[in-house]
What does this fold into?
Amino acid sequence: MADQFTPRVFSGIQPSGGLTLGNYLGAIKRFVDMQAAEFETIYCMVDLHAITVWQEPADLRKNTRELCAGFIASGIDPKQSILFNQSQVPEHTQLAWIFNTVARMGWLNRMTQFKDKAGKNRENSSVGLFAYPALMAADILIYHATHVPVGDDQKQHVELTRDIAAKFNHDYGVDFFPITEPVIEGAATRVMSLRDGSKKMSKSDASDMSRINMTDDADAIAQKIRKARTDPEALPSEAEGLKDRAEARNLVNIYAALSDQSVDQVLSDVGGKQFSEFKPMLADLAVTKLSPISGEMARLMDQPDEIDKILARGSERARELAAPILKKTYEIVGMVG
Ligand code: TRP
It folds into this structure.
């Protein structure tokens, strides 16, 4: 059914903390690749999603600009892609309200991210945290996006988006919203904590040593890699040998992703080496690949007005696409106006 729709990519990242290597390899690098392909690409800093859990206003402002700088420094061209922050395009929240009436309590109750984030304290979590996936569906469908690159942890939300589109189309007897395809990352780009290979690298982890921040300088990157947890074995020559070695696998995955090679290609070179030899290689590679990005980010962050201008222009372009789709949705639903 997606045939009738222009191939269009939408994805979003929450400006809820600094940008990490996990965001870069797991998301932004792929966003850059898709920009180069035959898609229209729309990338969003989802500030309205971020505030479903408490954000200090000054931090939110800083993190939104840092994320924008990170996108651009990594190769997102704001002339080619539409780059903006969610709150500035009110059509997202307007469509989200309609979707709040389409989505069922039972559907949202099954969302594992809500269960994880709310934890034991469900009664005290925000209504926004519960309704989060309906807003995410609106982010995607307000542009009739056909493809959504996301990490594995967001697959359930994209499936919910498909369910919402299908129920809307069915209830109103239309063929209006596309059934969007998730584009899930390969295992190789899932970056784990440097301290615990079973946990995702996260901007919210208490230990800064667990992650590489995109703003880290060369010394910090090298030190974090040197101290990264590993095991005493030498590296295997094939991917199979990393099966039960989460930390070793993570470092090899990072090496593969940064050097645009497969894990097997990397292991055919470094198989048999000890970590004492491999870690400096990884540190060199990481510094070579990441310092141009962090340098460019620092330059942009020194010009917050420029960043704000880019976001304002992106929001304008986004609204041009979103407004007619919202208008048509209102007509379908029977809103007089
Ligand atoms: N929920 C996503 C995350 O936390 C962020 C997000 C919000 C998103 N809206 C989106 C991702 C729309 C893709 C498409 O990672």
